[in-house]
Amino acid sequence: MNQLHHSRLASLLQSEEERFHQTHPKSYELYQRARKSLHGGVPMLWMIRWAGSFPVFVKEAKGAHFTDVDGNSYIDFCLGDTGAMTGHSPEGTVNAIMEQIQKGITLMLPYEDVLWVGEELQRRFGLPYWQFTLTATDANRFALRMARMITGRPKILVFNYCYHGSVDESFIVLDEQGTPISRPNNMGPQIDPLHTSKVIEFNDIAALESALAARDVAAVLAEPVMTNIGIIHPEPGYHEALRELTRKYGTYLIIDETHTICAGPGGCTAVSGLQPDFLTIGKPLAGGVPAAVYGFTEEAGQAFSERLDVDDADVGGIGGTLAGNALSIAAMKATLEHVLTDEFYSKAIALQECFTEGVE
């Protein structure tokens, strides 16, 4: 068995960091300047977690490539953490954005394009009603609020080390003894998620039924395939059991397709014939422009309407000033119509299979 030589490793790391500095002088200069106005020298906390002792600053990006301010070119395997899953600045989306900017960006009133988007989402995912947000986090938050309002139940069920953006209720995990705890380094939660949530392991049908049997769970929030701790596929029969048990105990099923939309035009919902009560998607839906959606069944829509006070609809915790803005809708329409097409998925899935075969 090869021995790990720590001194050799440290020497290699130092050498690579020195080379990184030599090839990225302008990024380093911008980083030092940014530290004076941006906390951590970056516009968003996650951007400090890259290799190297400072972040690379980008000049431009197109397709699967980007160039930094020092002229270094990269193949981008991150693609904005799937926000640019379609490739950077796809032509169809860019053209729609440029046209819409001249006609108005946001109005708090609908544009006609939103009808096409709603009907296309119906076609792809099979749910009759849709609402719009700017992020998948908000889409999940609003779906959870609706589920709690309709059922009158306080709890949400999630899976161990799930990823649903920054939804507060999802920051609960199981420790080594299988005891639910607030996720390590959960930053300033409004309330301990032990009071709002239950957590179980994915694929554990017995644990699922046990958690739902108390009939205090408003909704199960689930990715069809877990994507943020490696890829964990459902075992045969698990989704059928998930749907059967949620119905048995009067719990709504929310499927988050934000990452798994890569599976096809209708995500895993269409590929696997899932039947969620709510469905959420964000990230690549508008080609990188902030946009997300949540859809729901006729039953959920009717139950929500019966409890909704229209006079206070704008102060009830669901919605947002820029949600459903004209620019996001135009970008979404163009992306669905011209980018996230059957042809796109045929090519992308073939490339994925080729890449996977090569790696394995």
The figure for the number of domains is 2
In this structure, how is the largest beta sheet organized? 7 strands, mixed
The span between the termini is: 22 Å
Oligomer kind: single chain
Which segments are poorly predicted (pLDDT under 50) over 5 or more consecutive residues? none
* Elements, N to C (H/E): HHEEEHHEHEEEEHEHEHEEHHH
Give the CATH level 1 class of the largest domain: Alpha Beta
Task: Supply Rg.
Answer: 22 Å
Shape: globular
- So, the CATH homologous superfamily of the largest domain? Type I PLP-dependent aspartate aminotransferase-like (Major domain)
Q: How would you state the average pLDDT, rounded?
A: 96
Give the strand tally. 12
Proportion of helical residues: 25-40%
Indicate the CATH topology of the largest domain: Aspartate Aminotransferase, domain 2
Q: Could you say what the CATH architecture of the largest domain is?
A: 3-Layer(aba) Sandwich
